[in-house]
Amino acid sequence: MDIEFLASATKYKEDVAQMVYEEFVLKIGGTKSLNDVVNYFSNTNVDQFPITLIALDDEKCVGTVSIFENDLKQRQNYKPWLASLYTLPAHRSKGVGSQLITEVLKVVKGLGYEEIYLKTENASDYYRNRGWVYVETLIDANDESIDVFKHNLN
């Protein structure tokens, strides 16, 4: 499996957009269109936010993760954020997510940050078991309880 920057492998932007649209827009009743999401992922970068990484298995995009400057309006002082981690169902439990997270940590550390944050509605145990530290629980704009975690990069 290879982990690449989407900015360097733009032919996968529609695949990434479809994953993110289905998992993070439709499931929460978001208002963005699939075309909006494709346009967003057409403008990701390698060394400034937003950054998106993809997991390729035999040249098929099987997972994605992004790094945003901020992913929670209530916590503007927390920067940067791991966001939109997703692995295709047929490729789960094969280490795809772990490899994507490992690469995110390297990228963020390489950009000079000492910590990274994430928010999750339903995967707290997954992150806790991978060394992320619980910070707090908040209620988001959709009245859902979300847990915030951070990971120290030192």
UniProtKB/TrEMBL annotation:
Q: Which PANTHER family match?
A: N-ACETYLTRANSFERASE 6, N-ALPHA-ACETYLTRANSFERASE 80
Q: Show the InterPro entries listed in the entry.
A: Acyl_CoA_acyltransferase, GNAT_dom, NAA80
| Entry protein name | GNAT family N-acetyltransferase
**Which stretches are annotated as coiled coil?**
none
SUPFAM superfamilies on file: Acyl-CoA N-acyltransferases (Nat) (SSF55729)
* Stretches assigned to the N-acetyltransferase domain: 3-154
Query: Which CDD domains does this one have?
Result: NAT_SF (cd04301)
- Organism from which the protein derives: Viridibacillus soli
A Pfam match is Acetyltransf_1
Q: Which lineage is the organism of this entry classified under, starting from the top rank?
A: Bacteria, Bacillati, Bacillota, Bacilli, Bacillales
